[in-house]
Every structure is written in structure tokens, then in C-alpha cells.
Amino acid sequence: MNTTTYGNCLLFHGGGLCPVSNQYLSALAEELEKEKFFERIFMGFFSFECLLNPEELIKPWTSSLKAKAEKSPGGFYGTSRNIDLTVPELQSQAIATCKDLGITWIGVAGGDGSCRQVAEISEAFEAEGIHLFIPMPLTIDGIEGGYSLGLQSAVMKSLDVLDDLAATNLQTRDNREFSALFLELQGRNRDDILANLLHYIVRVGDFACGGIPHNDIDLFVVPANYYWNLDKLITAVNNSKKRTLVIYSEGANIPIDYIMEKVKRKIRVSKVGYLSQMNKVKMHNIGQYVPASIIKSAISDGRSFSLKFNEFSSATIEPIDYWAKLNPREKQKPTLNPDLEKLLKEYTPQ
Fold this sequence. Notes:
This protein is of the alpha/beta class and 350 residues long. Helix 7 crosses helix 12 (338-346). It has a seven-stranded mixed β-sheet with strand order 3-2-1-4-5-14-15, with helices on both faces. A four-stranded parallel β-sheet has the order 11-12-10-13, covered by helices on one side. A two-stranded parallel sheet has the order 6-7. It has helices spanning 21-35, 54-57, 63-70, 88-101, 112-127, 151-169, 192-204, 230-239, 256-262, 292-301, 322-326, 338-346, and strands spanning 8-14, 41-44, 58-60, 103-110, 131-134, 138-139, 149-150, 173-174, 177-178, 180-185, 217-222, 243-249, 267-271, 305-309, 315-318. Helix 1 links the parallel strand 1 and strand 2.
């Protein structure tokens, strides 16, 4: 196959880090190199910033870089926030970088924010002969419109942290009673991690909380996108005679200081935080999300594109703004599947 018409390709991670970004981008680079779609493949470090500092942040895909990537956790390629390539000066600089390196295709794998950035700049880049594609959304928070990678690894890391915290905090009695553990998860705009963690605790892991059966714990969740009642939460925690666990999404804006004033028990507060973004959880079947035949078809068509996967790994080719339209900056409507939504509401103080 003659690959010269496809030029060179740049791959990088966009948006907040997720555990499998390193593994996914490396697998994608390997597949593209094996299929010889491009003359050269470059890897970008620190997201869109790589286009503004190519000497330091853009590296050719080589066996030595592959070896380094394989030894590193999810954040190997890094990320950089607040880089807006719709700004004319920065956009011109980014386009010049691509022309200097012969880059005619850019693959960006990230969350809703990076999908919006790609959609916003695609027309200007296309006018200069540079195509963009979103091969797979990578985000621990989930995304509307299809399957993404990163959520399950974040859930398992959150479960691991909870297991350690519960084994200590929920096994300690103060003044002859159990204390309450409040745990904040990542998830500013969505409740995917919270709902999936709850599913594992209640339906999968009989001893998911430090070896303590969940039936021996008064368990409450506070979501970011569903109604919950602060007074009922405080009353429930005060009235509980059992171990008490409250898990909440980052975006729930739960007033911890106020709760600690109102609750007549000792409260311990912890966060999962960045641990759910950076861990060494690996996906053994990640190759199914870099389908060579579909990528070849989309690239051959010569237009920017997105790949949409369902949870069973079948993919379709969508427009470059597919994810951006379903995940706008404002008035997002994050949804859970009906089963997870029902479970979440069951444990939400209402």
C-alpha cells in the first residue's frame, strides 16, 4: 500500500488524565505503524500544548519510546489545561508546527472538553490540509453518546481506596460508637464513578468495604446531578447506630463543615482525588478499540472524524463534532443507564 498520501500523524491525550491513556495511545500508535497508514507517527506530550512547543513536547514513535511507555502508569503522556487553540495567534503557531513536521492527521483522545476543542478548530485546520480525529474518548467521568475508556479503571481504584479507608475508619469506635466516613470521588459534572462504585459495593463485592458486609453499614450517596436532601442526610447520620458511610461526587458541593457542626458523631473525611486518574490498572482487551479497518476507511475518506464505540466494542464513523454536540460546555445533561440510576436513587437521602 502506498502511504505517502496520508503524510505524518500526531497522537496525544487531551483533557484530564485517565488510567488507560498511556496504554491506549501506545496501542493506537503501534496499530497505525503496523498498518503503515502514515510515513511517520509522532507522540505529543502535555496535550494541545505540544503543538506550541514541538521541540520539547513532540517525539517520534520509536521502540525506545514504546519501552518507556510500557513501564509507566496512565499519565505518561501528560496533559495541560487552558490551552485554547481558537485564539488566532496560538492557532497559527499550532498549524505552523504541523506543516514543519509534515503532520496531516492529528488524533486526540480525551474527555468532553478536548472533544469540544477539536470540533472548534477542525475547520481552520482542515483549510490548511490538516485533519483531526477522535479515536476514542478517554475519561474517568464518562461521556454522553457512546462508550469511553477510563471509567472502569477509576472505579476499581476508588474501590481500592475505599477498602483501605473502611478497614480503618469503620473499624474504629469513638465514645462507644462508630464514626461516620465521608468519601469524595472524582466527578465534577457526572455521577458515573459514584453509581458504578455503588453497584460494585451492593451487588458485586460482598466484602467491598474493608471486609465489612455492606448490610452492616448504613450507606448513603450524594450525587452531583440528582436531587438530595441535606437535612435528611444529617438526620440519617445522627440516628444511625451502625457504621455509616457517605460517598459523594466531587460536583455535589456537599457542605462538609456545616455537616460536621450538625452531626453529633465523629466524622472522618477523605478524598480519592487524582488517585483515580493515575494508576496502573491495565485493560487486556484494549486492542479491540483500535480497529484498523475502520480507521483506514475513515482516513481514506479524507475528512476529520470521530469513532463512536458501544460497550461491545463495535464502532461507527461519526462527524468530528459528534461528541461536542452531545456534551456542550453549558447545560449538559449527563445520564446514567436506568438500572444504575434506580440504584443511585435508592441510596440517596431524599
